[in-house]
Write a structure and sequence with these properties.
Length: 287
């Protein structure tokens, strides 16, 4: 089982001719409102990849439809807290090449009650996984409790904050970073625990698994047209953990996650664009 203690956002997505420059006012060509947040994205990705997923997070009254969307994807949202404040949201700009720029308003994501997180993590055992990101206020607390329970802890160090990463580092088993975050990690001089598995994603250059047994790299799958890269890293993360949860080794899990991300970036949106397991397996079978 996978538990995700993570963010839930309302994504306000603006398609634009180019990313807005300082001082510029730009008319969007299209607007949409949908489910997002690194936590929700990863939960949806893992659930659609066939894993049993529970999500612990927080929303306001304006986020009920976001939770409904997660549940429709197969995520158990019985641990989501309802707070008297706005749901987190993101303003997402996407240009014609699929590149994005994002502004976050954390709101309820930074007010998840500690007692709710502890209650959620209390359901974990040695065969389970906890996945975390840097968009909620209880990641360090949840990681420590999960490790005491013997669960494996996968942490996406994004958005990168050296203090938050240092606080959680001793209690994680898997660290997921992109190239920029990996460089910031090394620049911050944060000591990595012995035995930690680090997965570095490199966009179109693929990803590398670095662990005690050595390194495993897998190239990205080429696609005919990139539509939207929003949530691609979350798609990779959710599918990677789902594959590991069902017993896949590093190479097979990386290949599965890369395939899912390749499908996801050919579609608009974040969580709504996550592929299902059957679709990803068909993609791989054709390669």
């Amino acid at each position: 089982m996978i538990l995700n203690v993570g963010s839930i956002n309302i994504d306000l997505v603006y398609r634009v001719p180019h990313l807005v420059r300082p001082g510029e006012t730009l008319a969007a060509t299209e607007f949409s409102r949908g489910l997002g947040g690194k936590g929700a994205n990863q939960s949806v990705a893992a659930a659609r990849a066939g894993a049993q997923v529970r999500h612990c997070g927080a929303i306001g009254a304006d986020g009920a439809d976001m939770v409904a969307g997660m549940e429709a994807a197969g995520v158990d949202c019985g641990l989501v807290a309802r707070l008297d404040m706005p749901t987190g949201h993101a303003i997402v700009m996407v240009d014609g090449a699929g590149e994005n720029a994002i502004v976050l308003a954390p709101s309820a994501n930074q007010a998840l009650p500690e007692a709710e997180a502890i209650r959620a993590v209390g359901t974990l055992g040695a065969d389970d996984w906890l996945i975390l990101q840097n968009e909620v206020n209880v990641s360090a607390l949840a990681a420590k409790a999960a490790r005491k329970a013997g669960a494996r802890v996968v942490y996406s160090a994004a958005p990168f904050d050296a203090g938050a990463v240092a606080e959680v580092m001793a209690d994680i088993t898997h660290l997921l970073v992109n190239e920029g975050e990996n460089a910031a990690l090394e620049e911050a001089g944060i000591d990595l625990p012995v035995g930690l598995i680090r997965v570095v994603t490199k966009g179109s250059d693929g990803a590398t698994w670095i662990g005690p047994e050595g390194e495993v790299s897998h190239p990205a799958f080429p696609v005919s047209k990139v539509v939207d890269t929003t949530g691609a890293g979350d798609c990779f993360a959710g599918n990677l953990v789902a594959a590991l949860d069902r017993g896949a080794g590093p190479e097979a899990a990386m290949r599965f996650a890369q395939a899912a991300a390749a499908i996801q970036i050919t579609r608009p949106g974040a969580a709504p664009a996550m592929p299902g397991r059957t679709e990803t397996e068909a993609f791989l079978a054709a390669r």
